[in-house]
Amino acid sequence: MKVTLRPYASTDAEALVPFLTAFWAVHHTRVDAEGARQELSDWSAGRHRLYVIEADGAAAGFLHLNRRGPVAAWVEDLFVAEPLRRRGIADEAIRQAEALVRADGVEALCMDVAADNVPALRLYHRLGFDRLSLITVRKDFEPFETARVERLGGVDFRVKQF
Fold it and tell me: Is 9 helix (H, G, I), strand (E, B) or coil?
């Protein structure tokens, strides 16, 4: 399967809207088509770069990059359509994103990952993302079910079960 990253164009909006609504649903957020169109506009402006992930010439998902300073870029968002997962599409999209940012002189590629997204954590680790850089801590105001506890710096942190 041939995987390519192609820069997003406004003519791609309607093909990507269903991907964005599915992406946000995975993150337990409802985004309608109009909200998805606004995200596409936001993700393709300023220091952001939005790419269509194509598999054998057809849209398979998207990859959203952002420069957050002179030395690092972030994979802000990555999505591959459910029927196309586990075929190496995300792996290849990340490899191509790495090549793009390295060509721009970036020293590191980072990404934020939900602590409960173990499949994504395993994928990223397999691709060489093995350094913890920043950690987001959160205080929930409502009780939640704990999926697991991670010990870091001698302190226990709870991972929310979704």
Answer: coil
